[in-house]
Amino acid sequence: MSNLTFSGGRRLTSALLAFSLAAYVNPTPTSAQTAPAVAAVRPDSNPLLASWAGPYGGFPAFDKVQVAHFKPALEAAMAENLKEIQAIASNAQAPTFENTIAALERAGHTLDQVQTVYGVWAGTMSSPEVQAVQREMAPRMAAFGDQITQNEPLFKRIEAVYNSPDKKKLTPEQQRLTFVYYNNFVRAGAKLDAKAKTRLSEINQQLAGLFTRFSQNVLADETDSVMVLKTPADLAGLPTSLRDDAANTATARKISAVGVITNTRSSIEPFLTYSDQRKLREKAWRMFYNRGDNGGAHDNNALITEILQLRAERAKLLGYATHAHLRLDNTMAKTPEKAMALMEEVWAPAVARVKEEVADMQALAKKEGANIKIEPWDYRYYSEKVRKARYDLDQNEVKQYLQLDKMREGMFWVAGELFNFTFSPVTDVPVYHPDVKVWEVKDKTSGKHVGLWYFDPYARPGKRSGAWMNAYRKQERMNGEVNTIVSNNSNFVKGKDGAPTLISWTDATTLFHEFGHALHGLSSNVTYPTLSGTSVVRDYVEFPSQVLENWLPTPQVLQRFAVHYQTGKPIPQALVDRIEKASTFNQGFETTEFLASALIDMKLHLAGDQKIDADKFERETLAQLGMPSEIVMRHRTPQFSHVFSSDGYSAGYYSYLWSVVLASDAYGAFTEAGGPYDKAVGQRLTKYIFSVGNTVDPADAYRSFRGRDPKIDALMRERGFPLKGAKASPPATKKPATKKS
């Protein structure tokens, strides 16, 4: 699954968006050191304030960036944007789409570029100095966003355009954009009285500071905590590739040991899968799953309590029962009840499957003479043993055929077949780290430039964990064609001395997933940047990325790109068959660990203004749900950056499940036609899903592609769960009549 997607955006159409642009990417600090003061830089000498120059429509001058540039650049760009906003708000002419809505779209160009580079450093190049800037600027940026959304003359102009009878003369995209601006401003408190607006701004500033502290605490635990493997016995059970990775990490960190396991998912999960040392598995598991929950300076529990209370107060100010109702009002689901209904429908069969999986593992452990009860640190280890025994499938054997570079080439090939793109490496574009590489994307038929794709694949100190997509620049054509710039970011362990980086099947799936986000941005074909690319509602944004995962296991990809790292021979068909037979294996675990996080997220935000003890709430709610003791949440509450490092996925983590229902159902359109590379279905996918951004209602867009509403059936079959019937889910959703664009 992807982490957060971030788009550097100058369209500050809501206070919520304004500060989350900074907070989205800010789980990034590396330690609790006090940062030295950042030297002042004059705005006229600040490279961040210069327009992007060069070929390809220009690009970020990453090679000229210094941390000292960020604060003055943000200050100068915000001041410039406020002047632009004031000019729009004080325009003496009657409000029109062009002098109000389109003018807002053109405003903030400098700020957009500054925030983009600032976000890249916050997400991938953090340092104590960067963290200090974040802590200072996050509340100020929240206040800045409120200055825009609480500008009464500006809102009155937006409202006038929205309510004007002339609106029907606008193009459908212009009508949609007008609706989006109006709706975002209302949801950000534009209709509140002065007292309520003041309090709302105070809340937003407090939350921005808390989000920054939360994410910095998580990364501090990730960066500062490692598990040292002291003797060869500590390596027992680990495959050669994992031993090499651990040794390389020890060398890179200058630790005298046979290996080091870092506190990131990409290191911990393979160790839990293969290590024969149960005590070390438990140690690694506790290190990872207790991030943000260890007491002391980096503990997040008190912050969570504050965040939840402030969100509840803000929701009431805005006229919503809870934060969950506020967040879902602007989604496909529309209400928490609909999202809960979907999760509950899947929860019961998932938990039932976990009980079967645990029984199989317990029986195997007993057979091997291990007198144990399966614990969370045993699940992956014994699950892998059961997989090997039942399907003769060793994930480490599969890994020998999954070279990172070859998988990247496979993604490019799929993009060529489905979207008619070509990718060519370029060296005339500056990057922020030597690991980052850049490709130019063109239309395969016409040779027309489409955009740039940056790839930052490897883990390093100061880079947040996980995998995600960024949009450095959005596609638009308000005043001529503007091409997009996108990036994908991962945390693989770099091979030693140029050796190929081998990745797991899960990692390869995630790679395709994140590339799906990039293709969503690259395929964009809209006029206005606010509606461009991945700028869609929360429970729809993961749909294009989820659907692309389906192309990894296709024979066309595996036979050409899944080749052995030593022999170069393609993956044997017999091994592919075993992968296919095992495709529903362990789905109880995969589904339950996700749903536990999604349900806790939703229930926390449905609790209203209750004062929540996060650890207690998590423990008691999971017990009420019947959470199997052998599994924990994929993201425990004190480290749940999706939910507490910004408003991004708060009361919205369910959206991954919502989107995978769409993705499973959508892929069915290919299987029902000519197969995964059916040209006609592929063209419909581009036309109605990948290219339209937020120019149309997502439910309408899906129906245009599929000819009907989505059904849950395909998802249940994929995971091997029993079907209750042909019940449509997610349910068909339509905007209320009062919110039609």
UniProtKB/TrEMBL annotation:
Cofactor(s) this protein cannot do without: Zn(2+)
Boundaries of every Oligopeptidase A N-terminal domain copy: 79-195
Reaction(s) catalysed (UniProt annotation): Hydrolysis of oligopeptides, with broad specificity. Gly or Ala commonly occur as P1 or P1' residues, but more distant residues are also important, as is shown by the fact that Z-Gly-Pro-Gly-|-Gly-Pro-Ala is cleaved, but not Z-(Gly)(5)
Top-level EC class: hydrolase
Domain Peptidase M3A/M3B catalytic stretches: 271-720
Keyword Transmembrane helix tagged: no
One Pfam assignment: Peptidase_M3
Transmembrane segments: none
UniProt keyword annotation of Hydrolase present: yes
Matches recorded under Gene3D superfamilies: Collagenase (Catalytic Domain), Endopeptidase. Chain P, domain 1, Neurolysin, domain 3
Keyword annotations from UniProtKB, A to Z: Hydrolase, Metal-binding, Metalloprotease, Protease, Signal, Zinc
CDD domains on file: M3A_DCP
InterPro entries: M3A_DCP, MetalloPept_cat_dom_sf, Neurolysin/TOP_dom2, Neurolysin/TOP_N, OpdA_N, Pept_M3A_M3B, Pept_M3A_M3B_dom
Signal peptide: 1-32
Span list, region Disordered: 720-741
Biased composition (Low complexity): 726-735
Cofactor note (record): Binds 1 zinc ion.
Superkingdom assignment: Bacteria
E.C. no: 3.4.24.70
Protein family: Belongs to the peptidase M3 family.
Protein name per UniProt: oligopeptidase A
Native source species: Hymenobacter volaticus
Lineage: Bacteria, Pseudomonadati, Bacteroidota, Cytophagia, Cytophagales
